[in-house]
Design goal:
Layout (H helix, E strand, L loop, with lengths): L1 E5 L5 H11 L20 H11 L2 E6 L2 E9 L1 H4 L3 H9 L4 E2 L2 E2 L5 E9 L8 H14 L4 E7 L3 H10 L3 E8 L2 E9 L7
Length: about 190
């Protein structure tokens, strides 16, 4: 049985446990080829994401947390250097004729899916649930994917339909920056 819902403070330890399995600093070397999360998070940061942004979305299968996605305003993300870098360039970008800003777009991700659920409907279900929740606030979703993470790139472009709007370098890494129209319900 699949359950999708917004995150609660009581979910934080479970989210951090899942996150740790796939975070670049703690992931098993053999699992990196199947995708990873680059940003580390604390309990306090996740508490803020839940309480101030209402931006943690979870997927449970048979009452076990198998995936999460984080979605929040640029002001929330601006404390991290990567997002500060992206925010600085945002006014130079457009998507579907919309000049992007911190007010008409939000940062989607990271997303983390347990390897037991990859290739299933968990990604599109969770993506669409979060997209629908965020659509009332923002018309455009923005995210980035490390070029060393081809599985995530394929999943987001082929399975979900995100479009590359630019590429950039940060901290000796190369990234794709992608966008999606939040008014479009995912077809799967």
């Amino acid at each position: 049985m699949i359950e999708l819902r917004k995150g609660r403070l009581s979910d934080i330890s479970e989210v951090l446990q899942l996150h740790s399995k796939y975070q670049i600093d703690s992931i098993k070397e053999e699992d990196k080829k199947d995708g990873f999360v680059t940003t580390a998070f604390t309990k306090e940061e996740l508490s803020s994401l839940i309480e101030k942004e209402d931006g943690l979305f979870l997927c449970f299968v048979n009452n076990e947390l198998v995936a999460y996605v984080m979605c929040a305003s640029w002001s929330f993300w601006s404390v991290w250097p990567m997002f500060k870098h992206m925010l600085k360039n945002l006014p130079n970008l457009s998507y579907k004729g919309i000049k992007l800003s911190e007010y008409n777009s939000y940062q989607y991700g990271p997303i983390c899916i347990d390897k037991s659920q990859r290739g299933t409907d968990v990604l599109p279900l969770l993506f669409d649930f979060a997209r629908e929740e965020m659509n009332s606030k923002y018309p455009v979703l923005i995210t980035f994917i490390n070029k060393n993470n081809p599985r995530s790139f394929q999943a987001h472009t082929k399975k979900l339909g995100l479009a590359v709007i630019t590429e950039f370098e940060f901290n000796n890494n190369s990234y794709y920056e992608l966008a999606y129209d939040t008014s479009l319900k995912l077809k799967f």
